[in-house]
Design goal:
Length: 175
Amino acid sequence: MKKALIIILLIVFVINLGGKSTNKMIIPEDAIRYRVIANSNSKTDQDTKVLVRDALNDVLTPLMLSSKTKSEMKQNLSLMTPVLEDKVQSTLKSQNQDETYEIQYGMNYFPQKEYQGVTYQEGEYESLVVTLGEGKGENFWCVLFPPLCLLEGEKTDSEKIEYTSLIQEILEAIF
């Protein structure tokens, strides 16, 4: 009887530990967001958005790493705006695209977004927004300050991680 009770308790313990581990990233209220909006959802426009994002990341990543305060990040973004514009222009030119674009820094609209089980409310947020063409396509977004873009880029795909439990292995060996 005692053995059966211990096994039942161990099973309950294993079941409670068996849930997935989730890390939810919450955006601080004083964050500076970043968004690149594609012209449309066509494959070409989405590919262009990714190329523009990557080109801008070459400039933005060092800023994220070096900016210690929000005001420092704002100042660095202001100083680097001509470089960001050059990056967008050269990327579009390299793709033989002459579509228009707009780079805005300030309070910009963000739609509601569900990401990793967290709902980010729609609203006006301090942000850097790059709109390609008509800006009617899917977008890339992250947070420049604090540099959550960098944290997200370093995360591993949690779906590919296999969790094991010593207790579960013991129970499987018994049964």
